[in-house]
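Section: Multi-chain targets

For targets with more than one molecule, the full set of components is provided together so that the structure can be written out for the assembly as a whole rather than chain by chain. Components appear in the order listed by the source. The example entry contains two components.
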Amino acid sequence: MASFGRFIRLALGAWALLLLVSMAPASAQQVNPTASSVKEQQLLQELNRIQGRVSIPDQRSGVLEQPQGREWREFRNVTLRWIGGIAILGMIVAIVIFYLTVGMVRLEAGRSGRTIVRFNAFERFVHWLTATCFIVLAISGLNITFGRPLLLPLIGFEAFSEWSQWAKYAHNYLSFPFTLGVVLIFLMWIGGNIPNKVDIEWAKRGGGMIGHDHPPAYRFNAGQKMIYWIVVIGGGLVAASGYALMFPFYGTGIEGMQMAQIVHSIVAVLFVAAMIGHIYIGTIGMEGAFEAMGSGEVDVNWAREHHSLWLDEQMARTGPNDGQPQPATAAAE
Amino acid sequence: MARMKFLCDADRCIECNACVTACKNEHEVPWGINRRRVVTINDGKPGERSISMACMHCTDAPCAAVCPVNCFYTTADAVVLHSKDLCIGCGYCFYACPFGAPQYPKVGNFGSRGKMDKCTYCAGGPEADGSKEEYAKYGANRLAEGKLPLCAEMCSTKSLLAGDGEIIAQIYKERVMKRGYGSGAWGWKTAYRETIES
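Its structure, encoded as tokens over all components, is:
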């Protein structure tokens, strides 16, 4: 029994000793082993993003945090809607006011009954290829920005999602013929669209839309040249930025895609506004203008009033094609 | 109802990737998609730190705000979920997300990314809780069974915490108090506009 008592005492002593030994490092535990490690706020302040290494194959997921998506969100949900809304509604309001006050720009000399070829079949094909693609692209694109507040409440979640899905496919695939059209427009009409002295005079005199003045112009006047460069430069920008979004991570990261979306959407809404103006002048805004892209032949009086220098050139070369029977065009009006 | 959050105690994460594996297995996530990942900053250098990250289920979630078809919704537990039936795979949530959470089954071109996939906080989707359809699209719905996300449950060092924000913040605070240091709740300021004072 005595030996057992001694054993107990020994065991208790050993236990107390162990406890003491283990207490010693515990009291010195206030050392921070990761004191020198990176801190979140410090990293965010330095680079505005936190990036590291991941052991999974998808190396892009090495970006841990990038709060700048917030600024992009603000742009997409607020800024863009204002820019787009003002540009497009502003253009429509301006056109309505212009139409109600000035009305259609008439042919002052009336129709001559003789026509002259303005755009050949290939030119018209390229124009309408680009135009139809543009209209689908514009509607499907505007749907991404304005559909949720405007259309979704009207047709409901399922229908809106279904429509948006198809709109997205149309947007993505029609970008290819559209880009082709822009390239062809660039090559096809570059010759007539280099700005020159005549344009300054044309612009000073307010072009063909205001008043009864008809400043001289070659094949394309300053206004048309503006449309041309809007299509070429705007089309080039939306195509380039659009493909950056369609082919994610080919040369761009998330920030690159945010930038691409910003460029794409701003250029696109301005493009849409400009094209609404273009459509107006080409249809109800000016008598005789639509025929240029419709049948391809314009009335000689239209050509004289709006493109006098071009008409002189053409006359000098071939003369108006008055050998053709004309009533077809005249009767159609 | 609780306000569910994730908290990664970066001083404890040892980059074992158990959370990543648990998530992939639990939800049978397809190849190429990682709902959760572990990022190591300054790997192999002094000051190295690993953080496990997935969707943080943000307050006023940016993904939900920018979605063109409004396919996101927030549950009563403040978990941010989405409907794959409504998703059109446009990629906008991916541009807006601060944590790189949205994933697409096709890294594909021509904009055919497929339906977006992301961490569901083990809470499934809009389909009936625990249904086959829900499992096929979103994975398991552990929350409906009264269980917390598997990544946090599996964490070998209990670095990753999941649960009601106030409770896990309290656990973290106590840890920091006891050990005397802490690097803060990573991502909380960005996700919830608040941080844990310690």
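Residues 323-333 of chain A have pLDDT under 50 and may be disordered.
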